[in-house]
Design a protein that fits this description.
The chain is of the alpha/beta class. It contains ten helices and twelve strands. A six-stranded parallel sheet has the order 2-1-3-4-5-10, with helices on both faces. The protein has a two-stranded parallel ribbon with strand order 6-9. A two-stranded parallel sheet has the order 7-12. It is globular, with a radius of gyration of 19 Å. The two termini are 35 Å apart. The relative contact order is 0.16. The structure holds NADP nicotinamide-adenine-dinucleotide phosphate (NAP).
Length: 300
């Protein structure tokens, strides 16, 4: 299987390189070698590579900055995926694309299913929603995997930030009114690879029958406060923490340029019904992720 992976140095992309490598050849590309904001560069790239599978792990993911860079967010999150999906269909390649829980406004009060109406609160969510819609309309063997609160331990993420804050501050304030499902990038990459294994020798035909939008995030959900508490509990170098208290805060205490949904957990039942796969409970995944960090006394 020849796989073109766009965004191979991002949180998810870095993990995908490793998870997909047993399936065949993986050609990874990232900015600036490919700039998805310049659509003219995309077609020659695809036609030169002629992959069987295209995985788009890129994204304009700076939620707050997107409010003042709407055109750039739109180009990377909506225009480029549209072009990629069309070209994938024309060349008979599978297209896998990722989207976000931030397409929802967060007022439903229970986990969102795929048929719930999106209503993004900010430019990032709006641009991702337009990307989803364009990919769906392109047809072919396209999967749109909507996920939430993606973290890795090797790039800046909520997990690495909480670990750093706990070493710098005696008191932490984390919001208790933002709720979703933390998703370890490593496991999202692994389940993407498992999906391609299931797709067998003719992945285009198999996935064309199952194309469409799926929710795929760590099982269960929690607030950012609960997530932060779990991060500190599973920290293998707890003795380095100087933090003495974690105080609950509300989103309104930390004004940001972009509004975020308060409750945006995703119900992933449809994905597990169709593919027989599911991501583990967010807390178990976090514990496993944290156990891969060096223990006290080990070299970093
Ligand atoms: N992070 C989350 O909490 C979250 C939640 C829900 C959904 N998602 C979605 O999941 C996917 C992966 O997210 P992630 O957290 O892995 O993102 P990430 O770590 O921010 O990585 C994004 C990747 O896209 C690349 N990129 C940015 N602009 C580009 C451009 N103009 N041309 C080519 N490549 C470009 C980045 O390259 P550079 O590093 O060089 O900029 C990076 O490799 C995205 O679709 C995102 O919307 C993420």
């Amino acid at each position: 299987m020849h796989i073109l992976l766009l965004g191979n140095t991002g949180q998810l992309g870095w993990e995908l390189v490793r998870s997909l490598s047993t399936l065949g050849s993986v050609q990874g590309m990232d900015y600036p070698a490919v700039n998805l904001a310049e659509t003219a560069s995309i077609l020659p790239l695809l036609r030169g590579v002629r992959p069987q599978v295209i995985i788009n792990a890129t994204g304009y993911t700076a939620v707050d900055r997107a409010e003042s860079e709407a055109d750039l967010a739109q180009a990377i999150n909506a225009t480029a995926p549209e072009l990629l999906a069309h070209e994938a269909r024309k060349m008979g390649a599978v297209f896998i694309h990722y989207s976000t829980d931030y397409v929802f406004d967060g007022i439903k009060g229970s986990p969102y299913v795929e048929s719930d109406d999106p209503n993004p609160l900010g430019v990032y969510g709006q641009s991702k929603l337009e990307g989803e819609q364009a990919v769906a309309q392109a047809g072919g063997a396209a999967l749109i995997l909507r996920t939430s609160w993606v973290y890795s331990l090797r790039r800046d993420s909520f997990v690495t930030k909480v670990l750093a804050w706990a070493r710098q501050q005696k008191s932490l304030r984390l919001v208790s009114d933002q709720i979703s499902g933390p998703t370890w990038a490593h496991m999202l990459a692994e389940i993407t690879a498992q999906l391609l294994v299931k797709a067998g020798t003719d992945p285009y035909a198999w996935l064309a029958e199952r194309r469409g939008l799926y929710h795929l995030a760590g099982s269960g959900y929690c607030s950012r406060l609960e997530w932060g508490e779990a991060i500190l509990r599973f920290d293998p170098r707890r003795q380095e923490q100087i933090v003495q208290e974690i105080l609950p805060a509300v989103t309104a205490d930390f004004p940001t340029p972009a509004r975020r949904p308060l409750f945006s957990a995703l119900d992933c039942t449809h994905f597990s019904n169709v593919f027989g796969l599911r991501l583990p409970d967010w807390e178990q995944a976090l514990q496993l992720a944290m156990s891969s960090l060096p223990q006290a006394g080990e070299a970093r």
